[in-house]
Write a structure and sequence with these properties.
Layout lengths: L8 E7 L2 H9 L4 E9 L8 H5 L6 E8 L6 H11 L7 E2 L2 E2 L5 E5 L2 H15 L9 E4 L4 E2 L7 H4 L4 H13 L12
Parallel strand pairs: 6-7
Antiparallel strand pairs: 1-3, 1-6, 2-3, 2-8, 4-5
Helix pairs in contact: 1-6, 3-4
């Protein structure tokens, strides 16, 4: 670990619905906690209903706390690129609107540099241009309690069965128990 760096690092990622992002990153070795929430907008302490209007400027995001000695930011970003379609503006599967945009909110200049390099490398995987925004984290508001640990508590719900579970399977994460946020 670099001198002066803490044992825990945090990155905030928007990859469509935060239920999906939470379920994916909970299963990654080295991730300590995943918190769904809202970031990037102009309204303080938004509610889910307000964010769903698309008028708050917020994206649904997952704040990922991880141990950089166990999983690197580059590895987290590699999973981010594989977990969603970063070439669709304001849309992921059935979810549409600015709140579902692809975005990386960084904590510092080092994270921004790593994120930009990762985006350049990811572009080679896609025929269409990657539209993922990268910006310093302006704010983060945790989502309401009923959104937290959503897939693990509601796996039988239709969205979980039809959207999240197949995505976990495609990424090879479906059979793994949650690691973070258990």
């Amino acid at each position: 670990m670099e001198e002066g760096r803490s044992a825990t690092e945090t990155i905030v990622l928007g990859a469509g619905c935060f239920w999906c992002a939470e379920a994916i990153f909970q299963r990654l070795e080295g991730v300590l906690a995943v918190t769904p929430g809202y970031a990037g907008g102009h309204l303080a302490n938004p509610t889910y209903e307000q964010v769903c209007t698309g008028e708050t400027g917020h994206a649904e995001v997952a704040r990922i706390a991880f141990d950089p000695a166990r999983v690197s930011l580059a590895e987290i970003l590699d999973l981010f690129w594989r977990a969603h379609d970063p070439t669709t503006l304001d849309r992921q599967g059935p979810d549409t609107g600015t709140q579902y945009r692809s975005v990386i909110f960084t904590a510092d200049a080092r994270q921004e540099e790593i994120a930009k390099a990762s985006r350049r490398a990811a572009q080679a995987r896609f025929a269409d241009p990657v539209v993922t925004a990268i910006a310093p984290l302006p704010n983060f508001y945790p989502a309401e309690e009923y959104h937290r640990n959503y897939f693990n508590r509601n796996g039988g719900q239709p969205y979980c069965r039809l959207v999240i579970a197949p995505k976990l399977g495609k990424l090879g994460l479906g059979a793994n128990p949650p690691r973070a946020g258990e």
